[in-house]
Specification:
InterPro entries: Gpn, Gpn1/Npa3/XAB1, P-loop_NTPase. The protein has 282 residues and is α/β, with parallel strands linked by helices. It has 12 helices and 7 strands. Helix 8 packs across helix 11, helix 9 packs across helix 10 and helix 10 runs antiparallel to helix 11. The chain binds guanosine-5'-triphosphate. The site of guanosine-5'-triphosphate (GTP) has 16 residues, from helix 1. The site of guanosine-5'-triphosphate has 16 residues, from helix 1.
């Protein structure tokens, strides 16, 4: 059964470069990948995509037809694609004996996928069929600012809660700046606090209060440092993905099946109530 890796991160964090490096590292390790591009607005896909959202929905014509701006058009393309996503799952299922990893690149604007209904539908469709792990890409250089570090941690926390799937935070661009400080901040609140007081603004005191809330999250989540540009840290990261896959089976899968069962039962109940109401009206 292949492991699905959903690559998410803020604009410019290096998602696409990361996906390219991930695919090439896995190939060098003798692993077979099935690659999916979910960014409808990208001009060129710089990795060998087996499925490309742009083959099904045309971003420019969606913009024109529905008179939408760039973000609205990305959301609409994802909605259209999510409605046919069961076909993508079927395609991957057919390949499951020939594939070790399914690698998914998401749109540049993180919220278009991570906070949208279509993103949730796509994630759930994959995760109820295959072991699925979210890879959150954070820009290490930007995280040097403790407020930006906290924003990234909050964002990944919100994705963890929304998707209820194992999460691996990858501090990218560690060829420019070593990521060890970020791992230390995740383990040592006092150290982060000292750094927050160096940039003492209203935002820092908010970040400080939020950091206490985040302590539990830091205990749950896996984190590592990588450079998508040089490939540094990728083999270790792939090893950690293996642990996350284990967690999916031990913790997350059972909860997901229960959640889906519960939702289906509620939908069935609502439909039969609607049926009764319509019959009474006739
Ligand atoms: N030094 C260095 N630069 C990197 C690394 N990863 C990505 N970059 C650079 O960061 C910039 C953004 O990278 P992308 O891969 O386009 O990032 P993205 O998150 O996909 O960007 P959008 O999809 O446009 O939001 C590019 O200039 C990359 O060359 C890295 O590990 N090290």
């Amino acid at each position: 059964m292949p492991t699905v890796l959903i690559v998410l991160g803020m604009a410019g964090s290096g998602k696409t470069t990361f996906v390219q490096r991930l695919i090439s590292t896995l190939a060098m390790m003798g692993k077979r990948t099935y690659n999916v591009n979910l960014d409808p607005a990208v001009l060129e896909v710089n990795f060998p995509a087996n499925i490309d959202i742009r083959d099904s929905v045309k971003y420019k014509s969606v913009m024109k037809t529905y008179k939408l701006g760039p973000n609205g058009a990305i959301l609409t393309c994802l909605n259209i694609f999510a409605a046919q996503f069961d076909q993508v799952v079927k395609l991957i299922e057919q390949k499951k004996g020939q594939v070790d990893y399914v690698v998914i690149d998401t749109p540049g604007q993180i919220e278009a996928f991570s906070q949208s209904a279509s993103g949730q539908i796509i994630t759930e469709s994959l995760a109820c069929t295959f072991p699925t792990v979210n890879l959150y890409i954070a820009d290490t250089v930007r995280c040097e600012n403790p407020n930006t570090f906290t924003s990234n941690m909050l964002y990944s926390l919100s994705i963890l809660y929304k998707s209820k799937l194992p999460m691996l935070v990858c501090f990218n661009k560690n060829d420019i700046l070593d990521h060890t400080f970020a791992l230390e901040w995740m383990q040592d609140f006092d150290l982060l606090d000292q750094n927050l007081s160096k940039v003492d603004t209203y935002l820092s005191s908010l970040s400080r209060s939020l950091s206490l809330v985040l302590e539990e999250f830091y205990r749950t989540v896996e984190a590592c440092g990588v450079s998508a540009r040089t490939g540094k840290g990728f083999e270790g990261m792939i090893e950690t993905v293996g642990r996350c896959r284990g967690e999916y089976f031990e913790v997350y899968h059972r909860e997901m099946v229960e959640r889906i069962k519960d939702r289906n039962a509620k939908e069935k109940e609502a439909l039969s109530a609607l049926d009764v109401a319509m019959k009474q009206q006739q």
